[in-house]
């Protein structure tokens, strides 16, 4: 927090605009649209709400309006990022579709275009792809968009983690959050800027913006009474939350610079170890460096196995494992995280199809065999971890973490 957040929250209370309408909402919708370079931004209660309405709208455009008690995806398959937070892809289930997970690539840790191409060979009727930019690093959107265009498929872009990250599309720099047909960002408490909660739907289509705004405010029709022709949601952002976002927005670029400095300090401090930082395309992207991560070289991985809720690891000289490093950090009161566990390994999605660049990632039995490292997502989950990345972290605190990681490899 910087202080200006308080000013706009106080203003909302002083003027009695304590509701889902008010000056803060109007201001941030305008300011975000200008920052990312889109025509319309619709402020919602969460990034998840933005992703839900984006996915619902995509379904309605592709398959027509659903019956009041059914989702718009109507059992159709949707290709989805696999290493992401489940909020990216749960809306497929909310709308009665079926997620098909696409494996990850090693260059940016995002959706693998080759695997996506393979998926279209296997399921040529699919018309929707949900793509996330993991940890603030843009994925290979040029290739992904070309594949989608070739198959007439639409894109829902999940830019929840990547607000302020830039990507070179057709030789022109653009912001993430403008790369899909339907786009979502988040102001959750852990994101690059926050409103405590909140999110936005971003679009260049006036009609889409109006539709999402209507759905988010209970789908009221223009009648003197509560008149409803379609199912509605209570998904609009509060003017109090919008006040916090309004106070944070002037600091977005500063937060990105701080996060980048943290990333670079780790990269330098860990350069002598058998690890790499989370990679990005230095020619065609500029991440927001939301989370710094590392991945241990294959040869330097000590044994580590994970069950559903617990794990075991063994130390070996000159080697380490993510769980060993996370414990060492916890011992000095520093919070790291495992890599987001891939969706195809999650109990709720374990029977969904999963496509690698070789084809069916489940094999003939459609079973995932934990720890075999047969796919890229599982491999990054096995060898990678998220480092403490808070922009308030001091250089001294970061040096302690770097020192602690070195001890793990003794
Ligand atoms: C945080 C996050 C979301 C959800 O945003 P909320 O505002 O928390 O609902 C969706 N997708 C990704 C990739 C996220 O990191």
Question: What keyword list fits this structure?
Answer:
410 residues, four-stranded antiparallel β-sheet, Aspartate Aminotransferase, domain 1, alpha/beta, single chain, 2 domains, Aspartate Aminotransferase, domain 2, 17% strand, nine-stranded mixed β-sheet, globular, binds pyridoxal-5'-phosphate
What's the helix-strand series? HHEHEHEHEHEEEEEHHHEEEEEHEEEHEH
Small molecules bound: pyridoxal-5'-phosphate
CATH topology of the largest domain: Aspartate Aminotransferase, domain 2
Structural domain count: 2
Q: Which CATH class of the largest domain?
A: Alpha Beta
Biggest beta sheet summary: 9 strands, mixed
Rg, alpha carbons: 22 Å
Question: Which CATH architecture of the largest domain would you pick?
Answer: 3-Layer(aba) Sandwich
What's the arrangement of strands in the largest beta sheet?
1-9-8-5-4-2-3-16-17
Structural summary, described in words:
The longest helix has 18 residues, at 252-269. This protein has helices at 4-14, 23-36, 47-63, 90-94, 113-122, 141-150, 206-216, 239-248, 252-269, 322-331, 376-383, 395-408, and strands spanning 40-44, 77-81, 98-102, 128-132, 154-158, 166-169, 172-175, 182-186, 199-203, 275-277, 285-286, 293-296, 304-306, 311-313, 337-338, 354-356, 359-360, 384-386. Helix 1 (4-14) runs antiparallel to helix 8 and helix 9 (252-269) runs parallel beside helix 12. It folds into two domains: 4-251, Type I PLP-dependent aspartate aminotransferase-like (Major domain) (Aspartate Aminotransferase, domain 2); 252-341 and 373-408, Aspartate Aminotransferase, domain 1, CATH 3.90.1150.10. Residues 366-373 have low confidence and may be disordered. It is of the alpha/beta class and 410 residues long. Helices cover 34% and strands 17% of the residues. It has a nine-stranded mixed beta sheet with strand order 1-9-8-5-4-2-3-16-17, with helices on both faces. The protein has a four-stranded antiparallel beta sheet with strand order 10-12-18-15. The protein is globular and about 75 Å long. It has twelve helices and 18 strands. Pyridoxal-5'-phosphate (PLP) binds at residues 46-48, 51, 84-85, 87-88, 132, 158, 160-161, 186, 188, 199. InterPro entries: DegT/StrS_aminotransferase, PyrdxlP-dep_Trfase, PyrdxlP-dep_Trfase_major, PyrdxlP-dep_Trfase_small. The active site is at 191 (proton acceptor). Belongs to the DegT/DnrJ/EryC1 family. The modification N6-(pyridoxal phosphate)lysine is found at residue 191. It holds the Pfam family DegT_DnrJ_EryC1.
């Amino acid at each position: 927090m910087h202080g200006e957040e308080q000013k706009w929250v106080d203003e909302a209370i002083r003027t009695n605009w304590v509701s889902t309408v008010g000056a803060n909402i109007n201001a941030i919708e305008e300011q975000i649209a200008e920052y990312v370079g889109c025509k319309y931004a619709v402020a919602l209660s969460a990034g998840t709400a933005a992703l839900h309405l984006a996915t619902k709208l995509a379904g309605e455009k592709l398959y027509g309006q659903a019956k009041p008690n059914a989702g718009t995806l109507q059992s159709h398959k949707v290709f989805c990022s696999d290493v992401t937070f489940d909020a990216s892809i749960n809306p497929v289930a909310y709308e009665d579709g079926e997620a098909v997970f696409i494996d990850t690539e090693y260059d940016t840790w995002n959706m693998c275009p080759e695997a996506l191409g393979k998926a279209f060979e296997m399921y040529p009727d699919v018309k929707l792809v949900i793509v996330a930019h993991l940890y603030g690093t843009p994925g290979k959107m040029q290739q992904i968009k070309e594949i989608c265009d070739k198959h007439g498929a639409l894109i829902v872009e999940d830019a929840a983690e990547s607000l302020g990250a830039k990507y070179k599309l057709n030789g022109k720099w653009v912001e993430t959050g403008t790369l899909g047909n339907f786009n979502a960002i988040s102001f959750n408490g852990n994101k690059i800027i926050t409103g405590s909660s909140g999110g936005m739907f971003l679009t260049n289509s006036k009609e889409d913006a109006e539709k999402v705004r209507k759905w988010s405010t209970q789908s009221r029709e223009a009648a003197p009474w509560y008149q409803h022709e379609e199912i509605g949601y209570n998904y609009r952002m509060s003017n109090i939350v919008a006040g916090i976002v309004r106070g944070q927005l002037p600091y977005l670029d500063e937060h990105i610079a701080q996060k980048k400095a943290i990333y670079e300090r780790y990269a330098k401090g860990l350069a002598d170890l058998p690890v790499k930082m989370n990679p990005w395309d230095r020619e065609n992207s500029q991440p927001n460096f939301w989370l710094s991560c590392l991945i241990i070289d294959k040869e330097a991985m000590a044994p580590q196995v994970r069950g559903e809720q617990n794990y075991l690891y063994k130390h070996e000289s000159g080697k380490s494992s993510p769980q060993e490093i996370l414990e060492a950090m916890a011992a000095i009161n520093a919070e790291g995280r495992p890599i987001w566990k891939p969706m195809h390994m999650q109990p709720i999605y374990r029977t969904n199809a999963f496509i690698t660049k070789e084809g069916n990632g489940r094999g003939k039995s459609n079973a995932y065999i934990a720890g075999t490292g047969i796919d890229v997502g599982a491999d990054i989950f096995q060898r990678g971890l998220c480092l403490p990345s808070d922009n308030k972290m001091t250089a001294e605190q970061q040096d302690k973490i770097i020192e602690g990681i070195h001890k793990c490899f003794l």
